[in-house]
Amino acid sequence: MSRWATTAESRTRNSPVPQTFANLEQENSAYRARLATAENHIGALQAALKECADDLEAELHTKYKDSAGHVHPALQRRYERDAAVILRARSLLD
Questions:
Q1: Which of 22, 40, 70, 79 is in Cβ range 3.0-4.6 Å of 64 for a Cys bridge?
Q2: Where are the chain's structural domains?
Q3: Residue 44's Cα: distance from chain center in Å?
Q4: What tens digit of pLDDT does each residue of 10-54 get?
Q5: Please, which residues bridge with residue 63 across strands?
Q6: SS3 state at 69
Q7: What is the pLDDT of residues 53-92, one digit of tens each?
């Protein structure tokens, strides 16, 4: 039985597996750090996109809608064209 244990120990000692495992641990840590940074960037971009969509919606509301909140029929196509950006931004955020 000790013969097998010695053989297994020598295989482990001479094997590149522990070194490879250590390298994988380092790469995994680096990957997790990059992933956390990317998640932070994505969150910041989502917040910026939401703010831009809200600002554009407020501007379009001021520009095209009357006091009752209706768009004049002559301006409806322009409003829909400009509002398409808002709809796309909000669909990306959902």
A1: 79
A2: 2-93
A3: 9
A4: 555 566 666 777 788 888 888 899 999 999 999 999 999 999 999
A5: none
A6: coil
A7: 999 999 999 999 998 989 999 999 999 999 999 999 999 9
Residues 6 or more apart in contact with residue 86 via CB below 8 angstroms:
53, 56, 57, 60
Residues in the chain: 94
64: CB partners within 8 A, 6+ apart: 71, 72, 75, 78, 79, 82
Tokens of 46: 């989502």
* Token output for 25: 């641990």
Question: Which amino acid type is present at position 44?
Answer: A
Q: Which residue has 């956390």 as its token pair? A: 36
Q: Which residue has the tokens 């955020």?
A: 93
